[in-house]
Design a protein that fits this description.
By secondary structure, this protein is an alpha/beta fold. It is about 40% helix and about 20% strand. The chain has helices at about 10, 20-25, 30-40, 75-85, 125-135, 155-175, 190-195, 215-225, 225-235, 240-255, and strands at about 45-50, 65-70, 95-100, 110-115, 135-145, 200-215, 260-270. Helix 5 links the parallel strand 4 and strand 5 (about 135-145). The protein is globular and about 50 Å long.
Length: about 270
């Protein structure tokens, strides 16, 4: 039973492509642990990574917190996160649980830091922030952070990337049953949502950059990992096929068989209880 305030369409958006998601999406930057630890003022005893997906934003805390709990509603994503965890022999302090952002499986006043990486825009904000206020200790931190698409590489392929995402949105608007469409929040309003929640004594926005290496296959995989593109596939539409073929050719021509650094730009919206 899905708790009130959660949409099945938002959860199902990420069903069926956990492997490609995990293989191509960026791992959360280690910088996240440093900036949040510095704001907290001490090593966190417990971190909850909410909407943790396949654990790309969870495992960065392995050496930076005493206990880390990844919370994720999608069975597909959660299964892969647990499979990855089983490969570690030195991480008994990390666990993953199925759960929802507004009904966290955690006691009140028990968490130092809550993170939402690439996920807060899929959550019902009012009940989520109220729940964050319940489980955070006094002085605890809530941080929603996202990378911007696409990563910096070349303006030709970036333009083609965004054209695919825009076209995917148009297709979904035309073909998907309105009652079953995912509902995505405007990320630019995250800071205002934190401020208006009255949960936090201090809020701010932080921008930072992170580099990762990518080859052509990974850059192509990034656009295929986008929920909108996957939703178009699930709808049975072929309308994106030619654009994806042209995009792949542009990317292959740019990378020329090379592995290159690409830049991901991040925005974090932070609230201190």
């Amino acid at each position: 039973m899905i708790p009130e305030g959660n949409l099945l369409s938002n959860i199902d958006r990420f069903t069926g492509f956990a492997d490609g998601y995990d293989r191509n999406r960026p791992q959360a930057p280690q910088f996240v642990t440093r900036i949040l630890r510095d704001y907290l003022g001490h090593r966190p005893a417990r971190v909850a990574d909410v909407g943790c997906g396949t654990g790309l934003s969870t495992f960065i805390w392995k050496d930076a917190a005493d206990q880390i709990i990844g919370v994720e509603p999608s069975p597909d994503m959660l299964t892969l996160a647990k499979h990855k965890l089983a490969l570690y022999t030195d991480a008994p302090h990390i666990s993953f649980e199925q759960g929802y952002s507004n009904t966290l499986p955690l006691p009140s006043s028990s968490v130092d830091i809550i993170t939402c990486s690439q996920s807060f825009h899929w959550m019902e904000p009012t009940s989520t922030l109220k729940e964050a206020g319940r489980v955070l200790r006094e002085g605890g931190i809530f941080a929603a952070y996202d990378c911007e698409w696409p990563p910096c590489a070349n303006w030709h392929i970036e333009t083609a990337y965004m054209d695919i995402l825009d076209h995917a949105s148009d297709i979904i608007h035309r073909l998907a049953d309105p009652e079953n469409r995912p509902l995505k929040l405007d990320k630019s309003a995250h800071l205002r949502r934190l401020e208006e929640s009255h949960v936090f004594r201090y809020t701010r926005e932080i921008g930072f950059h992170h580099t990762e290496i990518a080859d052509a296959d990974r850059y192509i995989g990034l656009v295929l990992s986008q929920g909108g593109v996957q939703t178009v596939f699930k709808l049975g539409s072929k309308e994106l096929d030619q654009k994806l073929i042209r995009f792949a050719a542009l990317v292959q021509d740019y990378f020329q068989g090379r592995t290159l650094e690409v830049v991901f730009s991040y925005r974090m919206r932070l609230g201190m209880k």
